[in-house]
Specification:
Layout (H helix, E strand, L loop, with lengths): L4 H13 L8 E4 L6 E6 L2 E7 L12 H14 L7 H5 L2 H14 L3 E5 L2 H12 L7 E5 L4 H10 L2 E5 L4 H10 L6 E6 L11 H11 L2 E5 L14 H4 L8 E5 L9 E5 L1 H10 L1 H4 L6 H16 L2 H19 L12 E4 L3 H15 L1 E2 L2 E2 L10 E4 L7 H17 L17
Parallel strand pairs: 3-12, 5-6, 5-7, 7-8, 8-9
Antiparallel strand pairs: 1-2, 2-3, 4-10, 9-10, 11-14, 13-14
EC number: 2.3.1.47
Enzyme class: transferase
InterPro entries: 4pyrrol_synth_NH2levulA_synth (IPR010961), Aminotransferase_I/II_large (IPR004839), AON_synthase_class-II (IPR050087), PyrdxlP-dep_Trfase (IPR015424), PyrdxlP-dep_Trfase_major (IPR015421), PyrdxlP-dep_Trfase_small (IPR015422)
């Protein structure tokens, strides 16, 4: 028996003991019918309705996106053929980067293979290559931000979540002559709350700090032409770098940053997660470009998303089912117990064909387990009512009201 077998087996056992073993529901997306889907549990197919997808606007099945991908697949083939600097750059990459720069009012943009790679690669360069840089990062920033800053080797100061006063305290205490960078998200993926971007921008201006804004859960869905929360507040110019994804509102996959041309050129030349990976397939870039262009010219999807989220907020309030924030389309129902959240998720699927994922540690802290609900533009009004009725019936049956409500906080202040 190899010497490492016992150690691997112990790691596997520890994963199960900690409740961190991952089990995945096989979901067969049906183009043209989403959120309807097929699940495959123990080899038995079943009709389900998906309520936790990040394809918030349904662009992953939009006819224009699918047509662009089909046409480009026939024209260019399946893959890019290499990294961006070794035979992998296609006209669709260039067009998409230009479109994204225009969307955000920036001089240039750069594509990555994923949003994770965009954050990790960009921040490892921007924080790590600026001599003496000290970074101020929100405590609930995404793992990709945390990893990028860790790999940068830069000195970090962590401010309390969405606490602009604490951010300013930390900046005031830092050496005034050192370069500074503030890193925040706009919409937070697990709580669904929104950062106080106007206050953060004002602090950055006051102390001469560079700003890096992750708008992953906002691009396409908020602001003029879907440019994000900062654009919605008319302060997009006050953020140095905007980071976004193609994998959520735009319905495909990939990540990007947009910012000043010199800055983008530095990241292009130094970011390992950009240099040492194969470029996005041309068909995927073409589909993403079709999605970006459609959403720049259409408010219909954003209007439906907002209406469904507002309706679900109201219905959950009426039934006294606690959730963390009513500021966005991400509605995190607070269960506060790992076993209970899994049980509710299982019963919704078994009895009602409703799939919503239970979220546990390390994605959220222990004792803050949630059902992460995402009513999207593709859901119907009747569907929202039906979802809340099904959740309410199970919630009452399991007597969830007796312990989590006191822990719930609903924020309404941006």
């Amino acid at each position: 028996m190899p010497y490492y077998f016992d150690a691997l087996r112990q790691l596997h056992d520890d994963l199960g003991t900690a409740g961190n073993r991952r089990e995945f529901l096989e979901v067969g997306r049906l183009a043209g019918r989403f959120p309807a889907a097929l699940s495959n549990c123990d080899g038995v197919p079943a009709d389900i309705s998906v309520w936790c997808s990040n394809d918030y606007l349904g662009m992953g099945q939009h006819p224009g996106v699918l047509a662009a991908m089909r046409d480009t697949l026939t024209e260019s083939g399946a893959g890019a053929g290499g990294s961006r600097n070794i035979a992998g750059t296609n006209a669709w990459h260039v067009r998409l980067e230009r479109e994204l720069a225009e969307l955000h009012g920036k001089a240039d943009a750069l594509l990555f293979s994923s949003g994770y790679a965009a954050n990790e690669g960009s921040l490892s360069v921007l924080a790590g290559r600026i001599d003496g840089c000290v970074v101020f990062s929100d405590e609930k920033n995404h793992a990709s931000i945390i990893d990028g800053l860790r790999h940068s080797g830069a000195e970090k100061r962590i401010f309390r979540h969405n606490d602009a006063a604490h951010l300013e305290e930390l900046i005031v205490a830092a050496d005034p002559d050192r370069p500074k960078m503030i890193v925040t998200e706009s919409v937070y993926s697990m709580d669904g709350d929104i950062a106080p971007l106007a206050r953060i921008a004002a602090i950055a201006k006051r102390y001469g700090a560079m700003t890096f804004l992750d708008e992953v859960h906002a691009v396409g869905m908020y602001g003029p032409q879907g440019a994000g929360i900062a654009a919605d507040l008319c302060i997009a110019d006050e953020f140095t770098v905007v980071m976004g994804t193609l994998a959520k509102a735009f319905g495909t996959t990939g990540g990007y940053i947009a910012g000043p041309a010199d800055l983008i050129d530095v990241v292009r030349g130094l970011a390992r997660s950009f240099i040492f990976t194969t470029a996005l397939p041309p068909a995927l870039a073409a589909g993403a470009l079709a999605a970006v262009r459609h959403l720049r010219g259409s408010d219909e999807e954003r209007t439906r998303l907002r209406a469904n989220a507002t309706l679900m907020h109201r219905l959950l309030h009426a039934r006294r089912i606690p959730f963390l924030s009513d500021q966005s389309h991400i509605i995190s129902v607070l269960v506060g117990d790992d076993a209970a959240s899994r049980r509710i998720s299982d019963l919704l699927l078994e009895r009602h064909g409703i799939y919503v994922q239970a979220i546990n540690a390390p994605s959220v802290p222990q004792g803050r387990e949630i059902l992460r609900v995402a009513p999207g533009a593709v859901h119907s009004t009747d569907g929202v009512h039906g979802f809340v009725e099904a959740l309410d019936s199970i919630w009452r049956e399991l007597d969830q009201r007796r312990f989590p409500a006191s822990r719930a906080t609903v924020s309404t202040t941006p």
